[in-house]
Amino acid sequence: MKEFNNIKNFIFDLDGTLYGQELLEKVFGQVSQRMGKFISQELNVDLKKAKELQINYFHRYNTSLNGLMVHHNINPKSFLSHVHRINLDFLKKDLVLREELIKLDSKKYIYTNGSVEHINQITTSLGIDDLFDGYFDIVDGNYIPKPEMEPFKVMLSKFKIDAKESCFIEDIAINLKTAKKLGMKTVWIENTEYWGKKNSDEDFIDLKVKDVCSLLKEINILKEA
Q1: 98 in Cβ contact with 131 (< 8 Å)
Q2: Fewer CB in 10 Å around end: N or C, the chain?
Q3: What is the pLDDT of residues 110-163, one digit of tens each?
């Protein structure tokens, strides 16, 4: 853990990273349902066919949106606005996370395949919306999703940070591969979801943790020592 003492920039994924894996289905269950309805309406297909396309495009293109843009010329802004219009009343302020983020004497950023509107919803619900130095969403990446190299480079340029002085924290293991190639420290949030844990036994992961709070507590304790 001592190698984290020299990290100047912590880059966090959003969903399943800044809140617990046990809440991921409550968030993405809604997002997924709204995706299916959007695809059904836009492509004039039934919900079963819409769900098949949604899953197929996700696995082929890393986001369903990417596939919809490639094959159906879907308007990405309309898609993002629709699918992230969800109810987050169940997501409560995380005072422990807030305290650890405040203690973390480094720059803090969020990088997600979702939208900045979704970032704002989640971070406001968690009570941490005022603690980050910058956001990078799918629009910033020109709708090219993680783990592609190009948006990672654009993200580093936007934040004006050095990859070798940075740490990337993510619950989808494969998204850490690109970060590692660029020279970042990588942390995987352990989970049992098929897509999340795929490739989690590979050596591009520097550290595995149960949740982001336990990671930040350890880092902050080491820095205080």
Answers
A1: yes
A2: C
A3: 999 999 999 999 999 999 999 999 999 999 999 999 999 999 999 999 999 999
